[in-house]
Amino acid sequence: MKLVICAGPATTGKTSVLRHVIKKLLERGHRPAFLKLDIQFAEEDELITREFAIPTRKVYSGELCPDHCLVIVLKDSMVWGQKTGSDVLLVETAGLCLRCSPYVEDGLGVIVLEATSGMNLPLKVGPMLTLADVAVVTKVDRVSQAEREVFRARIQDVAPAVRIREANALYGIGLGPLVDTILATPDIGDTTLLRGSPPAGSCTICTGAREIGQTSHFGRAKTFDNGLTYEGAR
Question: What sign does the dihedral 6-15-19-157 (CA atoms) show?
Fold first, then answer.
């Protein structure tokens, strides 16, 4: 089974891209499954079930960071996908932390960005872009050619090796090469590792402390003058 993890900011068209990918995979005789990971509400799995009748699941991260949640549940989701007899598992994640990579070494990492979101967006999304394999740029018909070129250049500034695919996610135009890339991806093994290095350390904020101010917390801490420090237990 192949594993594809699709991340990106909200409203970029991730689900629309994956709907067309699923349609093209089915047309080629493949057996995709779909997992949706979001924070507190999602209906994409239900819509895809009704449209394509493929195995789907969803997981809510709730109080957890969605990247953290994905790392925890991904192994079980891979086992579930294999039990359904699927040969491609498509995972759509909210991926809102912007510090962690949502991708794993054995899978294909896809980020979906919209060209209308501002020329500097590629500079702001961190490992979600820099550690991706493919960047799908949607809504290219809503910006000028000059803006499209600047947006592509910004992507290449931070992720020189990423493959850029411009697409119309509404009609699925330009997504054929993405499907080819998915099918050329090796199958996942029995074990896999998170791609890249997670953020260093944990902190009391991540574990639920609500007080504000540096003196109320320990672990890795950022100071107001942009320093990085470690505060020991109190």
Answer: negative
